[in-house]
Amino acid sequence: MDKIIVKGGNRLEGSVRAEGAKNAVLPVITASMLASEKKSVITDVPVLADVYTINEVLRNMNADVHFADNTVSVDATNQLTTEAPFEYVRKMRASVLVLGPLLARYGHAKVAMPGGCAIGSRPIDLHLKGFEAMGAHVHVGNGYVEVNAPGRLHGAKVYLDMPSVGATENIMMAASLAEGKTIIENAAKEPEIVDLANFLNKMGAKVVGAGTETIRIEGVEKMYGTEHSIIPDRVEAGTFIIAGAITGGNILVENAESEHLRSVISKLEEMGVTILEEGDGLRVIGPDKLLATDIKTLPHPGFPTDMQSQMMALMLNAYGTSVITETVFENRFMHVEEFRRMNAKMKIEGRSVIIEGPADLQGAEVAATDLRAAAALILAGLTADGYTRVTELKHLDRGYVNFAEKLAGLGADIERVNEDGDQVNPFADVVNMNDSAIAELSQS
Ligand SMILES: CC(=O)N[C@H]1[C@@H](OP(=O)(O)OP(=O)(O)OC[C@H]2O[C@@H](n3ccc(=O)[nH]c3=O)[C@H](O)[C@@H]2O)O[C@H](CO)[C@@H](O)[C@@H]1O
Ligand SMILES: C=C(OP(=O)(O)O)C(=O)O
């Protein structure tokens, strides 16, 4: 099992480039199954374990998928099978995003029921409610969810009890090939929803209003493969922005879209961080003294839950008492215990964590509890006294390409080693990496 060893104390300088967004590319790849003619070519794809997993899901359904040079091509013009087994859904919950496209195209889909995960119970009732409103029958049994639509799906008005990202995506995809008009009310407004809508429209769909709380989709009879370039990863960019801020550094995060990061930028400015637009990215200048603040996670454009644990690492270094309130997932504080191992002083009260700063962080052996927690523990390690060793890197590799290497490029004292203590960089051959090599990554 690999681990990342980081020694605190270095100020970061230089520049780093954000990859394409994991949370945009996964639905775009599943949407490519809506095309019964022509293949899709998707560029700026990050080489991540999750991308490998979704590619395998599609291949297993008889789609022809290739991944090289940050480009995924999907030819879904074959007759596809319509089942995603547990082995994939277990690895990645986003596998449920095949439901909408398959249901719309074939009138049937069967997917292993995703369980909860380290951040919450994460049901998919809103996805299913949307399909039912469009005329599908839903059956849940033996660990699977099966959806059937006897005829073509029909358009419907769907109100989401909460603006679920996945439900909005699944319903948007299903509605694209349905008969008539679908209206999604209280839809999610995340930038990844807009990217998916743009992709669907290039495929021939008629989606308007993505990025607002009401999305209207006029169903079409047929969709076609197309070309699409994925938006920058706002969470990866935000994580590097915090790396610059936490070390009092001065770094440029290239390919960072400020419009997508408004809530994060505004909170960091409150804490004393300077953030300036520069080229296609953002320059971050960390202050001598970070100030405490409070955040509450919310659906976009509120503060993103996927930045919560990284923000906790930053607040541990700020002067005063900060409060984090997590409203999106009910159990996204597993990393608190790990931070405590580093001598952090924090108290959990219901859905809030009270953080006393600045903590006298000490290097320790810690385990990543989920993807963003992995990054957050490494960020804390950048400022801790001595060596922090972070294990359970399978979480990190789901969503960050070459994280240790990129931080080392900015001047951090960090390395990734294997069980024997040999330095390893699983992404070193990223350009030439084939899917089976990435598969091994996801097992590491
Ligand atoms: C692959 C991907 O894009 N993942 C992102 C996506 O996850 P995901 O799409 O799973 O997140 P949702 O927006 O659906 O979930 C938000 C909340 O709604 C609840 N819910 C959701 C669906 C449902 O049918 N019923 C229900 O109760 C969830 O349990 C959660 O508490 O959005 C989350 C919220 O921004 C991000 O943290 C994830 O990184
Ligand atoms: C929670 C995340 O992803 P997923 O929904 O794939 O678990 C994330 O990207 O932080």
TrEMBL record:
The modification 2-(S-cysteinyl)pyruvic acid O-phosphothioketal is found at C117. It catalyses: phosphoenolpyruvate + UDP-N-acetyl-alpha-D-glucosamine = UDP-N-acetyl-3-O-(1-carboxyvinyl)-alpha-D-glucosamine + phosphate. Residues 6-407 form the Enolpyruvate transferase domain. Its main location: cytoplasm. Keywords: Cell cycle, Cell division, Cell shape, Cell wall biogenesis/degradation, Cytoplasm, Peptidoglycan synthesis, Pyruvate, Transferase. Coiled coil: none annotated. UDP-N-acetyl-alpha-D-glucosamine binds at R93, R122, P123, I124, D125, L126, D306, V328. InterPro entries: Enolpyruvate_Tfrase_dom (IPR001986), Enolpyruvate_Tfrase_sf (IPR036968), MurA_subfamily (IPR050068), RNA3'P_cycl/enolpyr_Trfase_a/b (IPR013792), UDP_GlcNAc_COvinyl_MurA (IPR005750). It is an enzyme of class 2 (transferase). GO terms for biological process: cell division; cell wall organization; peptidoglycan biosynthetic process; regulation of cell shape; UDP-N-acetylgalactosamine biosynthetic process. It comes from the Bacteria. Its EC number is 2.5.1.7. It is found in: Cytoplasm. Phosphoenolpyruvate binds at K22, N23. GO terms for molecular function: UDP-N-acetylglucosamine 1-carboxyvinyltransferase activity. Cell wall formation. Adds enolpyruvyl to UDP-N-acetylglucosamine. NCBIfam families: murA, PRK09369.1. This is UDP-N-acetylglucosamine 1-carboxyvinyltransferase.
